# Entry
Amino acid sequence: MTGLILILLAGFSVAIFLLARNRLVRAAATGPGRLHSRPKYHAAHAAIWAAVPALLVLFILAVAGPQIVTTITWADLPSEAPTMEPFRSQFQYDAEALARGGTASAVTYSEGQLQALNAHAARIESLSGRIRLGGLAAVVLAAGIGGLYAWSRARPDFRARNAVEGWIGGLLLACSAVAVLTTLGIVMSLLWESLRFFQTVSPLEFLTGTHWSPQIAIRADQVGSSGGFGAVPLFVGTFLIMMIAMLTAAPIGLMAAIYLAEYASSLQRAWIKPMLEVLAGIPTVVYGFFAALTVGPAFRSAFNGLGGLLVGGPFNDLGLYLMGVQNQMALVAGIVMGIMLIPFVSSLSDDIINAVPQSLRDGSYAMGATRSETIKRVVLPAALPGVAGAMLLAVSRAIGETMIVTMAAGLQARITANPLESVTTVTVQIVTLLTGDQEFDSPKTLSAFGLGLTLFVVTLALNVIALRIVQHYREQYD
# Structure
């Protein structure tokens, strides 16, 4: 039904578009100097008024129609319907399902209740049909009124271009409002749930506590439910893996960008850059498998072998420790994540370095500087704002990564700077806390929102710092 209405409405809008355009073309032929706007603007204005009011009515009908049917029929449930919840609500849901041509649930009804259910479904179907017919009439009426209004304004002196640009400006404003409201909705939802969490757990304990065990004991003697909500181990694990990833991605990505922009020939650039950017298209779960099945065992074998060589000598304790290293460690997760981040750094930095004016290079060469000196003292300082943005993007990507850490670094929350230990991160714990059926009335589940709010604040601070850096250096080179 809705699809047919949309097809008819599209056809009507096209017809109004062509009629208005032909009318203004004829007017232009009789008096070319009389037209304020070109015929295509008049045609677009007519099509907009023919389609937008009808689409608005159709949207309201699609959103409010089912709710109206439910409200009216819920107030008129038959006397045979169950009187207790949730069976009474299930009776209404089953009747609506039957009205849509589906099947009822597995709830057992008596003979009288089945008859009442079928009769109630018939009433729902009849009411839905009347609402659909009324909605169709409203759509036709809105389209007709809009089309007649647009046709009446299709005159040579009408400022159609201004009107169409006003519609476009309104559409852009609506899209901007959606983006802003979505951001506000995310922030407000985080704040609301986080406040509920901090009513139970002290923010000071959350931000400075060193014990993370988000379990709430049901009994006083229950084992393993200590209820520790100190998030410092998560912050330490996130920072450790992020630093390893950036120590891997930043130098390799930046050096690759310098080579591509300043040293590589056009043929080399045409081959190397797409091959680097292929890394950005690999799903993170594939990187996780690569870390868990290839990199982790390889590192474990290497460290175990090194430990075997050290056992019995002056570094016996270190050798014994290395022989106990397992597959999951921060080093594995950080290095694999750094490989994933290389194209983010290299591709953006390459574009930024290429955007540096050639006149700066020529001036450096004219002063007798070599290519490497020009890159170090002229090109890189000029490109620093963009390179800082590329690094920030990589840092944000590293902080928000989940799958690689889960599969390669483990789930143990601990405070350590040892890259050979198993750690966890904020995002991994958020996923763990919200996995499965959860009730949002316990500190365990609500702690995920506290972690999300903290991560949001940290990311916002990084963005502000990077913006300041960009503004500072842009003043020197613009």
